[in-house]
Amino acid sequence: MLTQAGDDRRQQYTGIKMAETKKLLRALAGETQDVPPVWLMRQAGRYLPEYRATRAEAGDFLSLCYTSDLAAEVTLQPIRRYGFDAAILFADILLIPDALGADLWFVTGEGPRLSTTTTPADMAKLKGKDDIHDHLAPVYETVRILSRELPEETALIGFAGAPWTVATYMIAGRGTPDQGPAHKLMAEDRATFEALMERLTGATIEYLSKQVEAGAEVVKIFDSWAGSLKGEDFDRYALEPARRITQEMKARFPGLPVIAFPREAGEKYIGFAKATGADCVALDNSIDADWGAANVQADGCVQGNMNPGLMVTGGQALIDETRRIRAAFSGGPHIFNLGHGITPDADPENVTIMLEALRG
Ligand SMILES: Cc1c2[nH]c(c1CCC(=O)O)Cc1[nH]c(c(CCC(=O)O)c1C)Cc1[nH]c(c(CCC(=O)O)c1C)Cc1[nH]c(c(C)c1CCC(=O)O)C2
């Protein structure tokens, strides 16, 4: 059943773009702006003292994700501090495996751990794509709180991990440098690998749909490990799921903007937006901005792509690089962002310096 917010959202997507006042949504609708909208991946995170305080209050990272008022609070913190043009729902891409019934926990200082899914018997233990919503209800509640509390000029981004990236964690039971276990399963038991990809694609569509019904105005698909898929594997397991998710979301919510992030796709960034239907492609910081402008922005909006390391080191290099990236993408629609998440050792003052260089 649709919520009232979801009803309003569907109406909103049927044709009022010309009157859109949110800078982020204008960029996603194809508008070139003198000063681009800006937000940062992982903008709610450990570099902020107020985040660390709220996380301590929650006890641990997963409790923070599932406690709606605290998750909404940390989402709002960087908006209050910096006035970013978008807020991104505070959650994690690994909540989907958790909702499907895989065990998930986080080891402080190391990262996520999950029970592994590598056999038909493991697959049989997972829940169906439609059976995730009770578990994820607190996330939808976070979105509802945010859509009430955000300033009217701030867009709300919902998100999910792409099937391939989420599968790499489910198959290995943890993060891996080269996604070796997932590539191995793909080679040795393609049927199980594809069954997992299919379950994740379906669940992701249902999960994102609930986020939109609760008030998310944009959705972003994070494929952090897309770069380890080469050639035909990239087309089948990165591009095709992104296309299916994007097309189904747009069929359900006409006009909904979609951002795709096939990180480290390299040459495969070319044509990705056209092939999937995504309104914007997020570029990682291995991409030269001029190359991105010529080859990717030529098809529409791009997001990115400053090196997150500059938020640690700062100085004149940060100012120069902010201006260089803004200039490189000034000929078309652009959302200023980093090429990957801001790191815990970033200096919060450097975000202010970046914003002054960008907007000033
Ligand atoms: C691969 C991936 C994950 N999560 C995510 C990705 C894709 C993007 C990327 O490549 O970074 C996405 C993500 N994770 C988080 C968000 C929230 C929204 C945001 O501010 O961007 C988003 C969009 C919060 C988080 N997710 C996590 C944190 C840090 C947890 C903490 O507070 O201890 C945050 C703020 C934990 C997490 N979550 C994940 C890992 C590997 C880790 C551990 C690494 C780390 O500690 O940074 C899985």
TrEMBL record:
Gene that this polypeptide is encoded by: hemE
Enzyme Commission no: 4.1.1.37
Quaternary structure note? Homodimer.
Q: Which GO terms describe its biological process?
A: protoporphyrinogen IX biosynthetic process from glutamate
What organism does the UniProt record list as the source? Rhodovulum imhoffii
Please name the top-level EC class of this enzyme: lyase
Where's it mainly located?
cytoplasm
Q: Does the keyword Ion transport apply?
A: no
One Pfam match, by short name? URO-D
Where does the chain bind substrate? R42, Q43, A44, G45, R46, D92, Y169, S224, H340
Report the family membership.
Answer: Belongs to the uroporphyrinogen decarboxylase family.
Q: Which domain of life is it from?
A: Bacteria
Keyword Magnesium belongs to the record: no
Q: Where are the transmembrane segments?
A: none
Functionally, this protein is described as follows:
Catalyzes the decarboxylation of four acetate groups of uroporphyrinogen-III to yield coproporphyrinogen-III.
GO terms, molecular function:
uroporphyrinogen decarboxylase activity
Give the protein's recorded name: Uroporphyrinogen decarboxylase
Q: Where is this site: Transition state stabilizer?
A: D92
Give the Uroporphyrinogen decarboxylase (URO-D) domain ranges: 37-46, 157-173
The record's subcellular location field reads: Cytoplasm
CC per GO annotation: cytosol
Associated pathway: Porphyrin-containing compound metabolism; protoporphyrin-IX biosynthesis; coproporphyrinogen-III from 5-aminolevulinate: step 4/4
Keyword list (alphabetical) reads: Cytoplasm, Decarboxylase, Lyase, Porphyrin biosynthesis
Q: Which reaction does it catalyse?
A: uroporphyrinogen III + 4 H(+) = coproporphyrinogen III + 4 CO2
